[in-house]
Amino acid sequence: MKLGRLILIEIIIVVIIALLGAGGYYFYYQGQHYISTDDAQLNAGLVTAVALAPGQIVGNLPSPGEHYKAGTTLLREKVAVPAQGAHPATTTTIDVTAPIAGRIASLEVMSGQYVQAGTPLAQMVGWQGNQVVAYVPETQIGSVKVGQTVDVTIDAYPSDTFPGHVQAIVPATQAALSILPTTQSSGTFTKVTQRVPVYISFENPDGADLYMGLSVEVRIHTGS
Question: What is the rounded distance in angstroms from the CA atom of residue 172 to the CA atom of residue 183?
Answer without folding.
Answer: 16
